[in-house]
Amino acid sequence: MNVLQFICPTGLYGAERWILALAKFLNSDYINCQLAVTKESKDQNIEIFERFKFLGLDSHQIQAHGRFDLFMVSKLVTLIRQKSIDIIHTHGYKSDILGVVAAYITGIRSVATPHGFENVRDRKLQIYIKLGGIALRYFDRVVPLSEDLEYEMYKIGINPKKVRLIQNGVDLEEIERERSSHIPSLSANRDEKIIGYIGQMASRKNILDLIKTFDLLYAKHKNIKLLLVGDGPQRDELEKQAKEMDSSSKIHFLGYQNDRLRILKEFDLFCMTSSLEGIPRSVMEAMAMGIPVAAFDIPGIDKLIVDGKTGLVADFGNREKLKECCERLIFNEELSYTISQNGRDHILNHFSSERMAQGYTSLYYQLLDMDNTIMKTSSDIAVNSALT
User: Fold this and answer.
1) What angle do CA 215, 219, 220 make, to 5 degrees?
2) I need a surface site. Which of 32, 44, 49, 53 has the fewest CB within 10 A?
3) Which residue ranges form the domains of the chain, and what is each CATH number?
């Protein structure tokens, strides 16, 4: 079968990495997974396009004239027909709107995976996000990444019969490859503790609270620094606000980085202050890497962190408590080691991309009303071979 992953990318962040992980672990003997991205400006980051091609899979660009070019629908319809696509799988409000219309015109099956809802102030963008929520009602299947996102689907009126939860997963092969590499440390001064964040700089990530928490910690401990990896619409404003902090000289905005895992490996602590998440991939990657995590306790985080066992959490907005969590994990080596090992075991045992891909394989076959006995038999043979 031919499955088209469709996204309007903003960089190489959670949703884009999710697509790459899924495509990597789908069985190419049975599923021809392809990618379509919208190209909306010269400076748009479409690295996912190149990464997908590197996997040996077909990638396609759909040229657009601006961010809200509805003529992209006709181009998407043409691509679907040319490539004999059976299922379109969309990611994000814009691709949901375009994708469900194209699926209706061409008569193919449609799947949407919501990766979380953005809180924005731009009125026009708010309208499109709301339209994206309405579009989800017309998909054949809507597949949230977490139980909390599943509940959100019901709240916006999605038919429960269309909703199927398939939990998020992380590419453990990629993590293990980086863990076993022997590239020299980024910092020769290991007396300085590194607190870090990797991800988009968007409103729902609430990064200003992370910066303010770091500033509280810096008032007591001078041998720390904060590395912020990623880009986004709030970066310029965040840099201005960081310059007003007493700790400004220790706050570093690194921008988008291709080698994020190499940088992640250097962290002594990963800290997240988001207000809204599905199941955050960056936190899963940190835990799988063996990096302790402190975060605000929000839906999605609670599926990863059991407070005091796999990480430490503070009530949302409580920067003083989060500072204490960071302090404990940075300066108590025994606690840090225990929590990092527990966190790593939790991810390895419950959040693999292989398990996620198996769930989508079953879903795709069900949508086309096909018997996936062949897939099950093939999987059984592979397991038996590995055990003998």
Assistant:
1) 125
2) 53
3) 2-169+352-387 (3.40.50.2000), 172-350 (3.40.50.2000)
